Amino acid sequence: MNKNHIFLLLLLVIFTASCVPNKELKYLQDNKNSNDTLIMSEIVKKPYRIQSNDVLVINIKTIDAELTEMFRVSEGNRNIVNEQILFFEGFNVDDHGNIRIPILGEVKVLGNTTEEVRINIEKRLLEEYFNAEASLFVTVKLAGIRYTINGEVRSPGTNIIYNDRATIMDAISNSGDITMTGDRKNVVIVRQYPHGVEMHTINLLDKKALESPYYYIQPNDFILINPLKQKSWGTGTTGIQSLSTIISALSLVTSIIILSSRL
């Protein structure tokens, strides 16, 4: 094998290795290469347990408008829902796991589900302020799922999904998708628990991610998309970009050799 062949082979290796292969970009692949329809086992719906720094939206309604008014936080326009209004009118869970409700005072909510909080509030209201004829109606919801995503995404930052449940795919789509240089195989999720913070990883290239306990995000999750090695090499993510980089490098080397020979 002569020098030209060796040079062309080396060029081909660099060109191939520097590109991001298609298999690193396709979500939820079938590793068994099967065309069969994916049959998923039923995902066990574990209700979310309220944690510190969560924000709850609580509505209390009865046929007695004047008495109901006492339990409202403010006179703001409740038909408008945005992050600022939720911050001021929502019920923030403090470090001790309590919320403060007008008239009722502090209510312990840490570790409870929203349904358990609703039942507790209804029970206290019926015992202390209302009777059965008041037609008491209470709703308790999370003020959306707030998460932060950073790294190789098109729109990093903190977002809120106004839904009871959301997947990591929803969060990524809401952030403009992962860039071509993002590592979809090792997506990091930093999650808060009552006992502290834990880090988890999920492989979004494998369809088994649908069965992962981390496929559904939780409030205050931090999602990190690390870069692929191709980005650190700086050779480009596509074949055209890599070829352009290699040609530019060869042109620079050639120019240096020509200039050196003239000296």
UniProtKB/TrEMBL annotation:
<keyword id="KW-0406">Ion transport</keyword>
<dbReference type="InterPro" id="IPR049712">
    <property type="entry name" value="Poly_export"/>
</dbReference>
<feature type="domain" description="SLBB">
    <location>
        <begin position="147"/>
        <end position="212"/>
    </location>
</feature>
<dbReference type="InterPro" id="IPR003715">
    <property type="entry name" value="Poly_export_N"/>
</dbReference>
<keyword id="KW-1134">Transmembrane beta strand</keyword>
<keyword id="KW-0732">Signal</keyword>
<dbReference type="Pfam" id="PF22461">
    <property type="entry name" value="SLBB_2"/>
</dbReference>
<dbReference type="InterPro" id="IPR054765">
    <property type="entry name" value="SLBB_dom"/>
</dbReference>
<keyword id="KW-0449">Lipoprotein</keyword>
<keyword id="KW-0625">Polysaccharide transport</keyword>
<dbReference type="Pfam" id="PF02563">
    <property type="entry name" value="Poly_export"/>
</dbReference>
<keyword id="KW-0812">Transmembrane</keyword>
<keyword id="KW-0998">Cell outer membrane</keyword>
<feature type="domain" description="Polysaccharide export protein N-terminal">
    <location>
        <begin position="45"/>
        <end position="140"/>
    </location>
</feature>
<comment type="similarity">
    <text>Belongs to the BexD/CtrA/VexA family.</text>
</comment>
<keyword id="KW-0762">Sugar transport</keyword>
<keyword id="KW-0472">Membrane</keyword>
<keyword id="KW-0813">Transport</keyword>
<keyword id="KW-0626">Porin</keyword>
<protein>
    <submittedName>
        <fullName>Polysaccharide biosynthesis/export family protein</fullName>
    </submittedName>
</protein>
<keyword id="KW-0564">Palmitate</keyword>
